[in-house]
Amino acid sequence: xxxxxxxxxxxxxxxxxxxxxxxxxxxxxxxxxxxxxxxxxxxxxxxxxxxxxxxxxxxxxxxxxxxxxxxxxxxxxxxxxxxx
Length: 84
Hints:
Blueprint lengths: L7 E5 L2 H8 L12 E5 L9 H18 L18
Antiparallel strand pairs: 1-2
């Protein structure tokens, strides 16, 4: 069996994202944080993963928003890395 050594990032939602989720009628009262785990490319590791995260942040964030609604008009207006 071949061993694969990869680094994973787990993204856990903060309260503003949970509040946004709860703004939808069918999810009201869901206080549990949302979590997503992704594997990062081999050239990044636990030391420089932030470089990769900054490169792909917008895509990941938009994917998370799209998992709740594809209507971009309903997405939060502030979606920068500094807001999460």
